[in-house]
Amino acid sequence: MIRSKGFMMNDTEGSKSSVDAFAEAKNQSEEQLLGVLADIKWRDGFICRKCGHTHYCKGKKPYSRRCTRCKTEESAVAHTVFHRCKIPLSEALDIAMTICCNPDISTYELSRRMSKRQMTCWKFKTRILECLTDNEKAASLRYVLESFNGRTV
Predict the structure, then answer these.
(1) Is the pTM of this model over 0.70?
(2) Nearest residue to 147 (alpha-carbon basis) of 18, 8, 33
(3) What is the CA radius of gyration of the chain?
């Protein structure tokens, strides 16, 4: 069982699952969403991308991890579809869910629904669709979105 600021990441009976955690976090702060995303990202343990070391300490930013060997810091969103995303994580998750459920949605319609610029929606939609073409990345994205929304994508 993994604990992260009030969220328990365990699918056993009687405890909160990752689906429950993201459903609660949907209306919570950006920091709590990062916590749940970090739990999902490192559910199999932390491995440094630079040196392969498995030991870490707390990083400078919320829910980031720092390798104790090479001192490289990795955030919860690094190397995910949300990396370098300029919109809030909760809105990015909503847009990603909309695109996964309806990949043919136009960026103009997405822009209207989400109250974002059309170019912002186009760039993020392109990133999501690119991710969906890679089977490994698509499975990972679907897991995150299912956890977030509580339904199958």
Answers:
(1) no
(2) 18
(3) 16
Distance CA 132, CA 104 (A): 13
Q: Are 125 and 110 in contact (CB under 8 A)?
A: yes
| Cβ atoms within 10 Å, residue 123 | 14
CA-based torsion, 129, 104, 122, 143: positive or negative: negative
Lowest mean pLDDT among 3-7, 135-139, 144-148: 3-7
Helix (H, G, I), strand (E, B) or coil at 2: strand
Determine the 3-state secondary structure of 3 from DSSP.
Answer: strand
Q: Which of 150, 24, 6, 30 is nearest to 91 (CA)?
A: 30
Give 92-115 pLDDT, tens digit per residue. Answer: 888 888 888 888 999 999 999 999
Cα angle: 10, vertex 8, 151; to 5 degrees: 65
SS3 for 33-76 is HHHHHHHHHCCCCCCCCCCCCCCEEECCCCCCEEECCCCCEECC
Provide the Cα torsion 97, 84, 40, 131; round to 10°.
Answer: 50
